[in-house]
Amino acid sequence: MHLFYQPDAGAFPFLSEEESRHCVKTLRLTKGDSIDVTDGRGSRYKSVIETADPRRCTFRIQETTTEIPRPYRIHLAVAPTKNSDRIEWLVEKTVELGIDHLSFFVSKHSERRLLKIDRLEKIAVAAMKQSLQLFLPVIDPLLDFASVLTQPADQRFIAHLPEDGSAAPLWKSARPGGTTLVLIGPEGDFAKPELDSALSSGFSMATLGATRLRTETAALAACHTLHLINTI
Amino acid sequence: MHLFYQPDAGAFPFLSEEESRHCVKTLRLTKGDSIDVTDGRGSRYKSVIETADPRRCTFRIQETTTEIPRPYRIHLAVAPTKNSDRIEWLVEKTVELGIDHLSFFVSKHSERRLLKIDRLEKIAVAAMKQSLQLFLPVIDPLLDFASVLTQPADQRFIAHLPEDGSAAPLWKSARPGGTTLVLIGPEGDFAKPELDSALSSGFSMATLGATRLRTETAALAACHTLHLINTI
């Protein structure tokens, strides 16, 4: 079954121009074909195509079901990598694994201070559809480091391996349930003042693995680790 | 400290042309600078550059240390994706997370039946160096499905979500230690006969997450899951 995204499907039963093109041109779906449409907030609209218009494909909703959200929320805040492909991979992969909230922040050692959020949102939508999920994560615009520290969460971690190795793995320190926020630093790691202000703001240092991970790999490892902790 | 790769560093204390260029041209290292060299089998040669030749950089080994391998081995066998970027990403990321053995196989639904193994090996070397590891994984050439089933392992899993949902997560069924082999199928999933022959060859079905994962994401999830199981 093909899944399409229309945030207001209930009120406006037609697909955006992009989704219409994908549905009618790429997938060659036509009038009378069944499709699933999601609003990205947990609703699935089992529908039938009414007008297979490649610019405005309309559908008739036959059944609406709603999925209950996970009993835990994963929020990653990441210092974007210099290479934009790696940020896009990060978005695609964390959405595939399942993520609720993605923030990006400018760090002292960040080499990138601009982000194409609309491009990242498109990638998130594609990954949500591809992995057949009904929840689209919130993606924040680029924040400054201070505002990342004030993001609400039940547990807060900053991914960092101190030289004396004195940090517990996220794996052992995170508890199931609630909202877990993990900060992932830039290629050059966090600056000492950033680390200090995070610790004094109630964040705990956590390691994500035995090896030195790139930013985008660290984000994936954190996301997958939190899912496993919550499915024990 | 910069880490370089020379499989026969003990016998031949000089870098390959590619490593020499990276060392002398890119990193601008020169005579007298300290470098670490690994043979990809656990040895670290703390060395000093003798001749900063961009074609054949020689070094003098000052100290040799050997790292003990992990007490468990991760072997993933993957049906390569149609898109070669995704395979390369899979290699980079699993090496970063730490992997011992990567095999690729042709599956009934594989869209790719050719692989540039030398290119994948280059990516593995770069990822090993970047993540400061001393062990380079074995990467097999493309195998047929039958020979994948005969690969030696203490635990064997095939990543698959049956329609009746009757498969345990890898996370719950894998035990720590030994060699764990996980088969990851192609975009179109395994063909029924492949699944059947795997099951009759002693493989157990295992799921890797709650969502439908792309081949390369599944490989990463399997790799990270096995590390966590072994660090409990």
From TrEMBL, chains A, B:
<comment type="similarity">
    <text>Belongs to the RNA methyltransferase RsmE family.</text>
</comment>
<keyword id="KW-0808">Transferase</keyword>
<comment type="function">
    <text>Specifically methylates the N3 position of the uracil ring of uridine 1498 (m3U1498) in 16S rRNA. Acts on the fully assembled 30S ribosomal subunit.</text>
</comment>
<dbReference type="GO" id="GO:0008168">
    <property type="term" value="F:methyltransferase activity"/>
</dbReference>
<dbReference type="InterPro" id="IPR046886">
    <property type="entry name" value="RsmE_MTase_dom"/>
</dbReference>
<keyword id="KW-0698">rRNA processing</keyword>
<dbReference type="InterPro" id="IPR015947">
    <property type="entry name" value="PUA-like_sf"/>
</dbReference>
<dbReference type="InterPro" id="IPR029028">
    <property type="entry name" value="Alpha/beta_knot_MTases"/>
</dbReference>
<dbReference type="InterPro" id="IPR029026">
    <property type="entry name" value="tRNA_m1G_MTases_N"/>
</dbReference>
<protein>
    <recommendedName>
        <fullName>Ribosomal RNA small subunit methyltransferase E</fullName>
        <ecNumber>2.1.1.193</ecNumber>
    </recommendedName>
</protein>
<dbReference type="Pfam" id="PF20260">
    <property type="entry name" value="PUA_4"/>
</dbReference>
<dbReference type="Pfam" id="PF04452">
    <property type="entry name" value="Methyltrans_RNA"/>
</dbReference>
<feature type="domain" description="Ribosomal RNA small subunit methyltransferase E methyltransferase">
    <location>
        <begin position="70"/>
        <end position="226"/>
    </location>
</feature>
<keyword id="KW-0489">Methyltransferase</keyword>
<dbReference type="InterPro" id="IPR046887">
    <property type="entry name" value="RsmE_PUA-like"/>
</dbReference>
<keyword id="KW-0963">Cytoplasm</keyword>
<keyword id="KW-0949">S-adenosyl-L-methionine</keyword>
<dbReference type="GO" id="GO:0032259">
    <property type="term" value="P:methylation"/>
</dbReference>
<feature type="domain" description="Ribosomal RNA small subunit methyltransferase E PUA-like">
    <location>
        <begin position="15"/>
        <end position="61"/>
    </location>
</feature>
<dbReference type="InterPro" id="IPR006700">
    <property type="entry name" value="RsmE"/>
</dbReference>
